[in-house]
């Protein structure tokens, strides 16, 4: 069997041109990430010093901020010079992606947090990862059709403070 690859891009590839509204969308994503990180930092501290408590207070909010601040639609999926697909990262480095991916595993050791806070933390990690994946898969659609902005609104919703005395919207799941 012979495998034929598509020809690679020519040597004179034009420079990346931002999508209409891209700077505003990226600024909103970075701002939503900062708000989410501030919410994570505001969560109750571990009653006793623990690696998970330290991770939740510093590493996780730092990863959320880093991911949303480094978004780059130019780093999207593309065909490499050898004709193979190169999966884009949307500007989010592998270490940050890894930090966001382990949130569900780490939360089992954060027993001082409420189930509602656990769900909200998982939502934050999922939404931030989702924004990067949207931009890597199809930046034009994600930006021009408001998908990133909607994900930022979801991020804000997940991190809004619960109202004291009222049942949280996630309690029926638990």
Order of helices and strands: HHEEHHHHH
The helix/strand class is mainly alpha
Strand content range: under 5%
Helix percent reads 40-55%
Q: How many strand units?
A: 2
Question: What is the oligomeric state here?
Answer: single chain
Q: How would you characterize the largest beta sheet?
A: 2 strands, antiparallel
The separation of the N and C termini measures 54 Å
Structural description of this entry:
The model has no long low-confidence stretch (mean pLDDT 88). The chain is mostly helical and 174 residues long. Strands 1-2 form a two-stranded antiparallel sheet. A hairpin with a 5-residue loop joins strand 1 and strand 2 (85-86). The chain is globular. The chain contains seven helices and two strands. Helix 1 packs antiparallel against helix 5 (115-137). The chain starts with 21 loop residues before the first helix and ends in a 16-residue tail after the last helix.
What is the compact description of this entry?
By secondary structure, the chain is mostly helical. 54% of the residues lie in helices and 2% in strands.
Properties at a glance:
about 170 residues, mainly alpha, 7 helices, globular
List the SSEs and their pairings.
Blueprint: H1 22-42, H2 51-69, E1 78-79, E2 85-86, H3 94-101, H4 103-107, H5 115-137, H6 139-144, H7 147-158
Helix pairs in contact: 1-2, 1-5, 1-7, 2-3, 5-7
